[in-house]
């Protein structure tokens, strides 16, 4: 049974206790429920006193309100702990290389300032994978033939040169991988390696800012090296 609306309004709690809030203020606390119950007992009709069932019902409402408040406090603490843990995990990834699922390839400077890019293609079985590396506009830059001995990821490296052996400028390129030839050819998934330059703590989760590839969620990372 809900508290008497007249008593609730007199005490400044809005219409009823079950409304859950007071004119935009936080939910009723245990102290508020006790005040409401005390006033209702003091102002009850002597000819129609509060029954045991009604008293138990209102006590249950008070317990529920207290439980919700405790749960909210626990969830807030858990959210803060998770955020702190993500910050520590993100800081440990800066400066390392991440393999992420993508159709982009980052041509960056490697050891001795030589340009290179590396990635993997998912082979469905033994055979040959053809990886076409293109510009952002789709112009073919280089075609790589990668043998696969079995099903699984097959690693490849691009030295940054085009089909004529000319060095391409550093930056972001596109890649498309196909397994097999002719009518039996099928597109397969790709992933690329890129350095983790920084991390962003987003409400949706940890985001990695990758050199040459932009931003990727932590869930897209397949390997860290």
Task: Walk me through what this model shows.
The protein is α+β, with helices and mostly antiparallel strands and 225 residues long. It has two domains: 5-91, no CATH class; 103-192, Immunoglobulin-like. 27% of the residues lie in helices and 37% in strands. The protein is built from three helices and twelve strands. Strands 1, 2, 3, 4, 5, 6, 7, 8, 9, 10, 11 and 12 form a twelve-stranded antiparallel beta sheet that branches. Strand 2 (104-109) and strand 3 (115-123) form a beta hairpin. Helix 2 (30-42) runs antiparallel to helix 3 (52-93). The longest helix has 42 residues, at 52-93. The protein is elongated, with a radius of gyration of 32 Å. Mean pLDDT is 76; it is low at 15-26.
CA-atom Rg in angstroms = 32 Å
User: Stretches where pLDDT falls below 50 for ≥5 residues?
Assistant: 15-26
Outline, from the CA principal axes? elongated
What is the number of helical segments per DSSP (H or I, 4+ residues)? 3
Helix-strand layout with pairing:
Elements: H1 5-10, H2 30-42, H3 52-93, E1 97-101, E2 104-109, E3 115-123, E4 127-134, E5 140-148, E6 152-158, E7 171-179, E8 186-188, E9 190-202, E10 205-210, E11 214-217, E12 221-224
Antiparallel strand pairs: 1-9, 1-12, 2-3, 2-7, 3-6, 3-9, 4-5, 4-7, 7-8, 9-10, 10-11
Helix pairs in contact: 2-3
């Amino acid at each position: 049974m809900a508290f008497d609306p007249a008593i609730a309004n007199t005490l400044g709690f809005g219409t009823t206790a079950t409304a859950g809030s007071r004119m935009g203020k936080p939910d009723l606390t245990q102290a508020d429920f006790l005040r409401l119950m005390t006033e209702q007992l003091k102002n009850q009709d002597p000819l129609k006193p509060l029954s045991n069932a009604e008293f138990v019902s209102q006590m249950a409402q008070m317990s529920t309100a207290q439980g919700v408040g405790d749960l909210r406090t626990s969830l807030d603490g858990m959210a803060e702990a998770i955020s702190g843990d993500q910050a520590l995990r993100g800081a440990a990834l800066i400066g390392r290389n991440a393999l992420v699922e993508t159709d982009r390839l980052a041509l960056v400077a490697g050891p001795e300032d030589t340009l290179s890019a590396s990635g993997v293609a998912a082979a469905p079985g033994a055979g040959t994978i053809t990886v076409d590396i293109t510009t952002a506009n789709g112009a073919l830059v280089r075609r790589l033939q990668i043998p696969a001995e079995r099903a699984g990821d097959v690693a490849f490296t691009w030295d940054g040169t085009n089909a004529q052996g000319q060095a391409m400028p550093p930056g972001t390129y596109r890649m498309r991988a196909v397994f097999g030839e002719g009518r039996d050819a099928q597109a397969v998934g790709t992933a690329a390696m890129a350095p983790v330059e920084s991390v962003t703590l987003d409400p949706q989760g940890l985001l990695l800012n990758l050199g040459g590839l932009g931003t990727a969620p932590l869930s897209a990372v397949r390997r860290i090296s």
